Amino acid sequence: MTLLVQDSLSLVVALALGSAIGLERELSDKAAGLRTNILICVGSCLFAILSRQLAAVAGTDVTRIAAQIVSGIGFLGAGAIMREGEHVTGLTTAATIWVVAAIGVTVGFGYYPLAAAAAVMTLVVQGVFPHLDTMIDELRQRYTFRITSDLNEDGLEQIKAIFRKSGVKVLRRKLMKKADLYYSEWYVAGPRLEQKNVVRLLLDNKHVRELTY
User: Fold this and answer.
1) pLDDT tens digits along 123-140
2) In the chain, is it the N or the C terminus that has fewer CB atoms within a 10 Å radius of its CB?
3) pLDDT reading at 171 higher than 80
């Protein structure tokens, strides 16, 4: 097999692996979809091929060009990360970009089985783990309860007891007194069913005037 054929095969393999991951991202309606992942994988592969060839011809460090991919791809991944209020999105997309670049470099250096194994693992993580994330999220739902209640110490203690005895964890609490009412905010985390139970108990409490969450 000539060097040109081998390098062309590497580019084709990079295209195939990038396509597999990119298709999954496209079907999941992510920012970095099919074409983006293909270009990242093929481009990284090409850089690795050039790095290998230049090292053979000029005697330079074979890792010099490839090493810059690691830092360079970080700027591309950073562009996919966005902050929306208290939530940060795009981290998985950025991580996928980083992994796809690594797969392209692996293909460029001729380690096809290793690159294929990494691509399969990436697809498993992208396809299976979101369901696991959903299950975990169900167990740690976070809400802010805003309660208006009577200016009554016993009623306030009852509200505290509802949160204390429930299966939720109070992360932050704020209490204000205004006119003849208590205004309290409870930022809690816990299973969705337990949160619904807290809502029911609060609505049944005679001291609670208003509840939003």
Assistant:
1) 998 888 777 766 666 666
2) N
3) yes
- Which alpha helices (DSSP H) does the chain contain, by range? 3-27, 34-58, 64-78, 91-108, 112-139, 153-165, 192-204
Q: Which one, of 174, 154, 158, 177, lies nearest residue 166 by Cα? A: 158
Cβ-based neighbours of 153, under 8 Å, separated by 6 or more: none
CB under 8 Å to 28, separation ≥6 — which residues? Answer: 126
pTM of the predicted model as reported, rounded to 2 decimal places: 0.65
Query: Taking residues 201-210, what's their average pLDDT?
Result: 87
- Among 47, 51, 49, residue whose Cα is nearest residue 59: 51
Q: Which residues of 42-77 are buried (b: 16+ CB within 10 A; e: fewer)?
A: bbbbbbbbebbeebeeeeeebeebbeebeeebeeeb
Domains of the chain: 3-137 (no CATH), 140-212 (3.30.70.60)
